[in-house]
Amino acid sequence: MHEAAVRSTVGTPTVMRDQLRHLTQMCDRARTSLRLIPMTAPFHPALARPATILTFTPPTRPLAYVETDTAIAFHDDPDTVTYYETKMRHLDSLALSTTDSRDVFARWADTYNRDTR
């Protein structure tokens, strides 16, 4: 997730605070890896179109889940999945650690909390 999504207010400060508290809690889940790409990270073309790699227990192969402006697609072709895995590795290199991401989510939740008073 890019930090711009955290810093762009959608809804009231209360809504933003609650959403960021939820993201903070999600960082503590064992099966969730939620990491933030900071505003200071250099732009990478992989940021232009979101994708998610869905992994399963064997023998089920991974899927690439991709959203566009007009459609949602699931790709199971191994070459296509590899392409999206490569994109994700590039984004991974830009992202904060899980712990640092959690700290940023918590800090922004506190910022929005002050705005609710």
Describe this structure in words.
By secondary structure, the protein is mainly alpha-helical. It has two domains: 1-38 and 97-117; 42-94, no CATH class. It is 46% helix and 11% strand. It has a three-stranded antiparallel β-sheet with strand order 1-2-3, covered by helices on one side. Strand 1 (51-54) and strand 2 form a beta hairpin. The protein is elongated. It starts with a helix and ends with a helix. The mean pLDDT is 91.
String of helices and strands: HHEEEHH
First-residue to last-residue Cα separation: 28 Å
Poorly predicted segments: none
Give the amount of beta strand, in percent: 5-15%
Largest sheet: number of strands, sense, barrel closure: 3 strands, antiparallel
Shape: elongated
Give me the side-by-side strand order of the main sheet. Answer: 1-2-3
Number of helices: 4
Helix content: 40-55%
Global mean pLDDT: 91
Rg calculated over all Cα atoms: 16 Å
Structural class of the helices, strands and pairings?
mainly alpha
Main features:
117 residues; mainly alpha; 2 domains; three-stranded antiparallel sheet; 4 helices; elongated
